[in-house]
Amino acid sequence: MCGIVGYLGGKRDIKDFLLKGLKELEYRGYDSAGIAVLQNGELKICKAVGKLKNLEEKCKNVKTEGFGAGIGHTRWATHGKPTELNAHPHLGEFSYVVHNGIIENFKEIKEELEAPFVSQTDTEVIVHLFEKNLQQGLKPFEAFKATIEKLKGSYAILLITKAMPDTVFYAKKGSPLIIGRAEEEIFFASSDAPLIGYAKEVHYLDDGEFGYVDKEEISNWKEREKKEPLFQPLTLNKEFAQKGGFRFFMEKEIYEQSDVITQTLMGRAKDEAIEFEELEHGFFEDIQNIKICACGTSYHAGLTGAYLLERLAKIPCSVEIASEFRYKEPLLSDKTLFIVISQSGETADTLEALKMAKEAGLKTLAVCNVDNSSIVRLADRTILTRAGIEKGVASTKAFTTQVAVLWMLALYLAENFDKKELEALLHLPQALKVDDALHERLKRLSKRYLHGHGFFFIGRDIFYPLALEGALKLKEISYLHAEGYPAGEMKHGPIALADPELFTIALMPKTLLYDKVKSNVEELSARDSTICAVSSEEFELADDFIKIEPQNHPMLEYFSMSVVLQLLAMEIAIRLGNDVDMPRNLAKSVTVE
Ligand code: AGP
User: Fold this and answer.
1) Is 332 in the same domain as 408?
2) Is 226 assigned a catalytic role?
3) Which of 35, 315, 392, 458 has its CA 20 to 30 A from that of 240?
């Protein structure tokens, strides 16, 4: 997720506020940054790749005392590599813009403009479209309004222009943007943290709100009506602000999934088809089978993807644990597409496996969350998951966005597919939304699962990899032993463990093999195992029952159950007093063997 800051006023050094504000947004992750200031008719800009200290170095001689308007941005690449040219602010002839989000129709807009584009980003079309509207005779605010109305997708935008100095234009749809105010000063930011210590009160912009601030007023609009901003006092705790009011980054990231998945789908899940601007069908021409390779949670996403690629795209698919693959002397064919999945893009085992595939002449595709990471730089093609930075060591939103990308890839490679697949895909934000009542129930339920001699998470088909993932989530943050297992396999040995102290978390989707799983669970219940059923339908033999919303597609049940398993693991870990975000012995990125 990119970070945005803005300022209008004359009571402080504008550059100083912008840089400090961007520093408060570092926790969101970024790969480049920039600021722009308009003062006394002069536009000053600095941009740099890498950490903020590079930007501070570049603009150390820029003076910005006195009244003016300023904007700043930290970029997490979604379109175009992390380079200085792709860093924000983007400039026109006399205007600058920063943007967080995805402009879905940027290609169409770009084709209509004869502007001198210098970046690979979607954002740059905003400033050139704005200046084209000005050149066609619209006044600045009308030109800005016309620009916003043309954009499809998600955005939080700040724009400054010589055409209307001492003014900041803003717009918000789908990405967060806040206006803060104090005496004779106006502040902007994409989250609370940069405003703390400056703004006395804040207005959280709603989707569809836009307008401008100048020395006289805040002219705020929604659709075609003026809308008075509703200012409220600002929280003063930065740590609290960075976690967005949640107890842990992991909790924030679980709740973020519903919004983040919208970014993952954006520009890709169209009404009739799947499009990847990063790919071309020719790349897959002579592929006869697929091998997926990953570690940990990413491996579980890969296992899920394999079911989908075979079922939907009819392409044989196998999945390997990278640390095993590296030393098994694998037989590789250049007719195999080698897919590596990694949140960090730096996992040593996965990176080495990718090198082996490249050396063997295979085509390689990375599904990754960090652009310009080692794995992204090495793979032939990359699909970014666009989950934004994931601070919690236990992966949540990275996992669900990986599975969503693999689902889209399977549809992209399929000769054809039933339209219900796309309908279900577009319903993902709802399926990932956290239901507060359900979360409360899981908080209460978690007290029952703080001991025992272990957990089995069981499921069939795609719910077997999900069972593995649920078990891993619990293990890595509660330190309790848990095992994911195919539900149909329990009778081949593990059922010997069944007793009241053995907790079985049974994933029982109504839309896929329900009766089969139900009979497996009945076998366990008959042997007095303690059953916690996760399903949309009551199951009388369950000792505990976690109800999910009924869905009409297995994948929607899959994503709803993902949220349940993430929250259950987290609430158990919290009760045990563990550091949910930084569990013992673990690192966010395992860059060693
Ligand atoms: C996930 O909760 C774990 N932190 C871990 O298994 C992780 O998925 C694994 O180390 C792979 O990391 P990557 O996705 O960054 O490659």
Assistant:
1) yes
2) no
3) 35
Kindly state if the Cβ of 301 falls inside 6 Å of ligand 1.
no
* Closest ligand 1 atom to Cα of 347: 16
Q: Could you read off the pLDDT of 124-144 as tens digits, one per residue?
A: 999 999 999 999 999 999 999
- 324 and 394 fall within a common domain: yes
CA 57 to chain centre: 30
The CA 398 to ligand 1 mean position distance, Å, reads: 9
Q: 302: Cβ below 6 Å to ligand 1? A: no
Q: Which atom of ligand 1 is nearest to the CA of 589?
A: 15
Which phi-psi region, left, alpha or beta, contains residue 529 (left: φ > 0; alpha: ψ -120 to 50)? Answer: beta
Q: How many domains does the chain have?
A: 3
Check pocket membership of 344 for ligand 1, CB cut-off 6 A.
yes
Residues 221 and 294 in one domain: no
- From residue 107, alpha-carbon distances to 5, 104, 165, 175, 187 in Å are 27, 8, 30, 20, 32
Instruction: Tell me the DSSP string of 357-411.
Output: HHHTT-EEEEEESSTTSHHHHHSSEEEE-------SSS-SHHHHHHHHHHHHHHH
Collapse the DSSP code of 199 into the 3-class scheme (helix H, G, I; strand E, B; otherwise coil) and give the result: coil
- Which CATH number goes with the domain that contains 556? 3.40.50.10490
DSSP codes, 277-316 = TT--GGGGTT--EEEEEE-HHHHHHHHHHHHHHHHHH---
pLDDT band at 589 (very low <50, low <70, confident <90, very high): confident
For ligand 1, atom 16, which residue shows the shortest CA distance? 342
Q: Is the CB of 395 under 6 A from ligand 1?
A: yes
Query: What is the extent of the structural domain holding 518?
Result: 434-583
Atom of ligand 1 nearest to the CA of 590: 10
* Of the candidates 208, 188, 196, 227, the residue with the CA atom closest to the CA atom of residue 3: 188
Residues 236 and 260 in one domain: no
Cβ of 565 closer than 6 Å to ligand 1, yes or no, is no
Q: Which of the two residues, 590 and 344, has the higher pLDDT score?
A: 344
Q: Does residue 590 belong to any structural domain of this protein?
A: no
